[in-house]
């Protein structure tokens, strides 16, 4: 698929852009990568400063080193992570999520492309407002091309090692690591709580719609 071949309606792309952690090693064409990143930079940022940057990693040796860092951080997370999740799905669902996350940790370097989404500035909660919309744009654009992705931050447990590896300046932060690749699985809608359960009218807890 090329940038001229896109036919996925925007709402379908939004509803089916879910975490794809099992990816094929097939290469992604440069023109498709360019289109995906061009979509990313169309996102808003604070005062339109556009202080973001994106590192596309395709070198096999660099990907292997990133995987080793990522795997170490993931192992520490798994050791401390809860066994259930907040939507009430229980241990069975969490077990599937953990298995998928473990697969990514073990096979991260096999993804054809790793993208580091970076942002320059003083680290704060609000700084994310200037980079995560771009990350979402990137992931939805990738979905439109049939390319899977997931937003992960496990690497932040050893962020300085990642910055040293990729020559990232001290005042630039790595907000997300995003593997890209054609997925092994099928597209579909991820399980979410109904909108009626999370949208309120005027006061927290006052349902806007009743289910």
Attribute tags:
alpha+beta, NADH Oxidase, 4-stranded antiparallel β-sheet, 211 residues, 4 strands, globular
Biggest sheet record: 4 strands, antiparallel
- Our count of domains comes out at 1
| Net shape | globular
Low-confidence stretches: none
CATH class term: Alpha Beta
Radius of gyration: 18 Å
Helix/strand-derived category reads alpha+beta
Question: How many H/I helical runs?
Answer: 7
CATH architecture: 3-Layer(aba) Sandwich
- What distance lies between the first and last C-alpha atoms, to the nearest angstrom? 40 Å
CATH fold assignment = NADH Oxidase
Name of the CATH superfamily:
NADH Oxidase
Number of strands: 4
- The amount of helix comes to 25-40%
Task: Report on the architecture of this protein.
With 211 residues, the protein is α+β, with helices and mostly antiparallel strands. It is built from 7 helices and 4 strands; from the N terminus they run ααβααβαβαβα. It has one domain (3-198): 3-Layer(aba) Sandwich (NADH Oxidase), CATH 3.40.109. The protein is 39% helix and 12% strand. Helix 2 runs antiparallel to helix 5, helix 3 runs antiparallel to helix 4 and helix 3 (60-80) packs antiparallel against helix 6 (159-166). It starts with 9 loop residues before the first helix and ends in a 13-residue tail after the last helix.
């Amino acid at each position: 698929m090329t940038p001229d071949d896109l036919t996925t309606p925007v709402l379908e792309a939004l509803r089916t852009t879910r975490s794809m952690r099992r990816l094929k090693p097939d290469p992604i064409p440069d023109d498709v990568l360019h289109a995906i990143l061009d979509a990313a930079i169309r996102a808003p940022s604070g005062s339109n400063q556009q202080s973001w940057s994106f590192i596309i990693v395709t070198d096999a040796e660099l990907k292997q080193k990133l995987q080793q860092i990522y795997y170490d951080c993931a192992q520490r997370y798994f050791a401390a992570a809860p066994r259930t999740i907040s939507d009430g799905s229980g241990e069975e669902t969490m077990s599937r999520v953990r298995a998928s996350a473990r697969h990514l940790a073990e096979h991260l370097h096999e993804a054809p492309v790793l993208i580091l989404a970076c942002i320059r500035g003083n680290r704060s909660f609000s700084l994310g407002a200037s980079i995560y919309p771009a990350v979402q744009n990137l992931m939805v654009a990738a979905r439109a091309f049939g390319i899977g992705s997931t937003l992960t931050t496990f690497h932040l447990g050893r962020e300085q090692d990642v910055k040293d590896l990729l020559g990232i300046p001290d005042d630039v932060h790595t907000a997300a690591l995003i593997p890209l690749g054609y997925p092994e699985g099928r597209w579909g809608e991820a399980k979410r709580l109904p909108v009626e359960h999370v949208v309120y009218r005027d006061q927290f807890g006052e349902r806007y719609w009743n289910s």
